[in-house]
Amino acid sequence: MLTRILQLSALVGMLGGLCLGQPSPRQRATHVIVIGYDGLSPRGLAEASTPNMDRLLAAGASTMTARAVMPTSSSSNWGSMIMGVGPEQHGITSNEWQPDKYTIAPSVPGPAGFSETMFSVLRRARPSAHIAVFHDWKDFGRLVEPDVPNHISHEMGPRLTMRKAVDYFKHHKPQLLFVHLDHIDTAGHRAGWHTDTYREAVELADQLTGDLVKAVEEAGIMNQTAFLLTADHGGIGTKHGGETMEELLIPWFVAGPGVAKGRKLSQPVNTYDTACTTLALLGVTPPSVWICRPVAEAFAE
Ligand SMILES: [Zn+2]
């Protein structure tokens, strides 16, 4: 009899899934902060003293073998991270790409003519959502639909970029805040990946990350805020853009409400999964044309 009841309930469950289709993901966080560190490799993170990142790492779910997309250039990877698709779909195959200058057309043009970003998807799902972007590399700006974020600005240098982001957070408490820091990549190009100069750049990034965490704590909304920390690519020698594991592997970690504490992810994570996971944390269904998946293994339930 018990077996029969279990069979019946399994059947009802299956039918329910078929009839109702994909439910919207449950909203886990009211605020999501994504920090992207240009050129931060897993090895670079391991070799530096990073107490603030370590704290988030211990509090959340992480992998040090997440993958960038090919080519391991900045634009193709920042694009993938926020557009939920890879270069084959968004067509951003080099830093030469411009919204009106490319050789590979976007498979599904979004509202601005290029592949839609997670900022635009959130704006459509939640018209009143507060969205802010601070980027330390000027060319990041062209990857975002101009009229979508409430605020988007290019700031000069990591300290000013984070200071502006922290001030903005204190005043507006955006639902989605994206901060791009460029200086680790700069250190890699100038002195070499995994040199002392590079390590010092990682340690500065950690201090600045701590400033933002502190602002969230002081605002009293740490328990509603998820942090997702990652990079666009690693590096080797003084370069990236090539085909080595040192360039391909990136750190990826998330911490906050509804996220498993201290879980080492065993499933593969690709950089475009950041877009799906960010939206999933906010309870927003990703567009069906995206190829990313929310990193479900990172969620506590
Ligand atoms: Zn880069």
Characterise this structure.
It is a single chain. With 301 residues, the protein is of the alpha/beta class. The chain has one domain (26-298): 3-Layer(aba) Sandwich (Alkaline Phosphatase, subunit A), CATH 3.40.720. It contains eleven helices and eight strands. It has helices at 2-20, 42-47, 51-59, 74-83, 87-90, 118-125, 158-172, 183-191, 196-218, 245-248, 273-281; strands at residues 31-37, 61-67, 131-135, 151-154, 176-181, 225-231, 249-255, 263-264. It has an eight-stranded mixed sheet, sandwiched between helices. The longest helix has 23 residues, at 196-218. It is globular. The protein starts with a helix and ends in a 20-residue tail after the last helix. Mean pLDDT is 93; it is low at 1-21. The structure holds zinc ion (ZN). Zinc ion binds at residues 38-39, 74, 185, 232-233.
Q: Span from first to last CA?
A: 30 Å
Quaternary structure of the protein: single chain
Number of domains: 1
The major sheet is characterized as: 8 strands, mixed
What class, by secondary structure content?
alpha/beta
The name CATH uses for the topology is Alkaline Phosphatase, subunit A
Number of distinct helices? 11
Could you tell me which ligands this complex binds, including any ions or cofactors?
zinc ion
> CATH superfamily, please?
Alkaline Phosphatase, subunit A
Radius of gyration: 19 Å
Average pLDDT level? 93
* Assigned CATH class: Alpha Beta
Second CATH tier, the architecture = 3-Layer(aba) Sandwich
Based on DSSP secondary structure assignment, what is the total number of beta strands? 8
Poorly predicted parts? 1-21
Helix content: 25-40%
